[in-house]
Amino acid sequence: MERKRKSLFDIFDELFDQIELVDKHLRRANREVMWNPYREELVPLTHIRDEVDYVVITADLPYVRNLNDIDITMTESEISIRARMCRTVKYEKWIPGFKDVEYKQWAKTIHLPFLINPSKATVRFKEHILEIRVPKKLS
Amino acid sequence: MYGKFVDVRKLEGAEPSVIIGLPDVGLVGVISAYYLIRKLTMREVAYFESPNLPPLAVVHDGLPFSPIRMFNWNNLVVLTSEVPIPSNLINEVVEALFKWVDDHRVKGIYCITGISVPNRLDIDKPAVYAVTSSEEIKVSVSSIGIKPLEEGILVGVPGVLIRESAKRNMKSVVLISETHEVYPDPGAAASSLEALSKLLGFEIDLKPLLEEAEEIRIRARDLMKRTLENMEAINKAQERDVPMLYYR
């Protein structure tokens, strides 16, 4: 069967959609706070690396001891990470009202600038850094 | 109006060496500075003052401080900052530093920074490279096993500092450790401090730094996030560019 070739306009439309998604992602990351005292959760630093056919997502998870303490859920456009710490973290000298909170876990939902194929993801956990390597979903 | 370092106390030692550790890739410099200040029980000797500083004060034990300060023990001075240095302040801080350096007969400047490597997770002990202000210093630094960074681009304070040092004939070394791109990296700081201790001939126990690594990574998260935003603003990604000209 003959494949329909994309027009230049389609290519530009796709490119602008991608740029918009990345921009949205960056704006959301900038607004994000690094802790949620109401749920006793810390928000980990995360990073998304584009490796052409793959996306590599990492998260810094100090005080998490192994992969069994991490719950990962994935959809085509989001990855949620929840990880239990081996000890609680407290900011004793911090703002009154928040300084008695004991943070017990890491939690974050990462909105991806690409669609992924979650069933083919591979995961490793080394030096308290979680690395999820997942192929992009080809359109 | 231009910024300056204001002395708050007399220096302990003569002809000091200045060690710079500012918020940068992997927070290598800041973690190194923090560890030296704590381990050597350094005391504040000067702070940076400028109308161009971000409108904030850092509060410790109920008292306000400038975010950019110098600490001293014996003949070592550590310059660090608790907030990222905005791009419009980089030249000003370096200029003020050189004025302070002239006034205090400084022997050498050592700037600790990082360069992100994508495979950091697979590196047990990050390598440290050096950029020096002269050929002579490059030879002496190489002789103790610290390889020079042959080609590259330094962005931010390390770049301005080393360029100005070469121009002013000041002995300066920028130590660049392999590091995580977006995470605080105490392991990279340990490698840098090991190289620094070789250069300056002092001994420092780095075991506690590695033992405290997880705690440091948790405490440094907010600064890392702000630093990443600042790195975007100063186009730090240029450090991964290959310079076109190979002429000397």
Topology at a glance:
The complex is a heterodimer of chains A (139) and B (248).
Chain A: H1 8-31, E1 35-36, E2 41-42, E3 46-51, E4 54-60, E5 70-74, E6 78-89, E7 103-111, E8 122-126, E9 129-135
Chain B: E1 4-7, E2 17-21, H1 28-39, E3 43-49, E4 58-60, E5 63-65, E6 68-73, E7 76-81, H2 90-103, E8 108-116, E9 128-132, H3 135-143, E10 147-148, H4 157-168, E11 172-179, H5 186-200, H6 207-211, H7 213-219, H8 221-233
Description:
The complex is a heterodimer of chains A (139) and B (248). With 139 residues, chain A is of the alpha+beta class. Chain A has one helix at residues 8-31, and strands at 35-36, 41-42, 46-51, 54-60, 70-74, 78-89, 103-111, 122-126, 129-135. The longest helix of chain A is centred in the N-terminal third of the chain and has 24 residues, at 8-31. In chain B, the strands form two sheets. In chain B, strands 1-3-6-7-2-8-11-9-10 form a nine-stranded mixed beta sheet, sandwiched between helices. A two-stranded antiparallel ribbon of chain B has the order 4-5. The mean pLDDT of chain B is 93. Chain B has eight helices and eleven strands. Helix content of chain B is 35%, strand content 23%. The longest helix of chain B is centred in the C-terminal third of the chain and has 15 residues, at 186-200. The A-B interface holds A 30, 34, 42, 44-45, 47, 49, 58, 60, 62-63, 89, 126-129, 131 and B 118, 121, 180-184, 187, 213-215, 217-218, 221-222, 224-225, 229.
